[in-house]
Amino acid sequence: MSCQCNHTKESETERPEDALITSTDPSHPANLICELCRLFYSNGWVTGTGGGISIRSSNLIYIAPSGVQKERMIPENMFVMDLETKEYKRTPKVYKPSACTPLFLSAYTMRNAGACIHTHSQAAVMVSLLYEKEFKIANIEQIKALPKVTEPGYLGFFDTLTIPIIENTAHEEDLTDALQQAIKEYPGTTAVLVRRHGIYVWGETVWKAKVYNEAIDYLLELAVEMKSFGIPPHIDIGQESKYVDPKIYN
């Protein structure tokens, strides 16, 4: 369902560049960003004006702006940038560019991503407090939704998912160097956690990025729950009884 509501309608005066964000096609990036922002808001991943999303269409990238409540976003709010020149082809009349933009660009230029999602998921924040440098989880069915990245195919049930954790900064754009370094050091990752902040997830297409984000958030939430019972999320199958109160098995 596209977002054609007028919650945050800008001036009615159209400009030639507005053709870039005007379409009745629900799958158009400007419409999809609105739809996904509402979905992520309903999931509690992007409250207030936090978080962001960007979608690539050929050599153009569509970016949700800064300062807009995600559940009220409309296509007219979008920024459109040329990926090659890094110049804006279309800017909204009111809003500022997202501070996430250089991080989105990192996913596009370093991983050839088709979309990048940034959420402030509570599970992501909690996991960043429970692990030092990287998050690991293994032997969980949902891992199979995530790609191997360095080779064709997806992770298997017996594989270990590893996601690097970088330190937060006072300003979002200052995370860029650390995120790029994490991408280099972890060639198999499709996400980077930011301590006390949230997570960046990308994929080959917007729909794959959405699936990866949902699968990872499920695994992060599960890991927090496992930790609360004293179970390390990356242990081998059958080792749970070593960490859990024996009374639970009675």
Give an overview in words.
The protein is 27% helix and 18% strand. It has 250 residues and is an alpha+beta fold. The chain has two domains: 18-98, L-fuculose-1-phosphate Aldolase (3-Layer(aba) Sandwich), CATH 3.40.225; 118-237, L-fuculose-1-phosphate Aldolase (3-Layer(aba) Sandwich), CATH 3.40.225.10. Strands 4-3-2-1-5-9-8-7-6 form a nine-stranded mixed sheet, with helices on both faces. A hairpin with a 3-residue loop joins strand 8 and strand 9 (198-203). The chain is elongated and about 70 Å long. Pathway: Amino-acid biosynthesis; L-methionine biosynthesis via salvage pathway; L-methionine from S-methyl-5-thio-alpha-D-ribose 1-phosphate: step 2/6. Its main location: cytoplasm.
Topology, element by element:
Layout: H1 29-42, E1 52-57, E2 60-63, E3 79-82, E4 88-90, H2 101-111, E5 115-119, H3 122-130, E6 134-138, E7 160-166, H4 176-185, E8 191-194, E9 198-203, H5 206-228
Parallel strand pairs: 7-8
Antiparallel strand pairs: 1-2, 1-5, 2-3, 3-4, 5-9, 6-7, 8-9
Helix pairs in contact: 2-4, 3-5
Question: Nutshell version of this structure?
Answer:
Belongs to the aldolase class II family. MtnB subfamily. With 250 residues, this protein is an alpha+beta fold.
**CATH topology term of the largest domain:** L-fuculose-1-phosphate Aldolase
CATH homologous superfamily designation of the largest domain: Class II aldolase/adducin N-terminal domain
Gyration radius (Cα, Å) is 19 Å
**Poorly predicted segments:** 1-7
* Overall pLDDT confidence: 93
CATH class of the largest domain: Alpha Beta
SSE pattern: HEEEEHEHEEHEEH
| Percent strand | 15-25%
Q: Alpha-carbon distance between the termini?
A: 49 Å
Shape verdict: elongated
Q: Taking strands numbered 1, 2, ... along the chain, how are they ordered across the largest sheet?
A: 4-3-2-1-5-9-8-7-6
**Sheet having the most strands:** 9 strands, mixed
SS class = alpha+beta
The overall strand count is 9
**Helicity level, as a percent range?**
25-40%
Could you say how many structural domains there are in total?
2
Gross CATH architecture of the largest domain: 3-Layer(aba) Sandwich
The number of helices is: 5
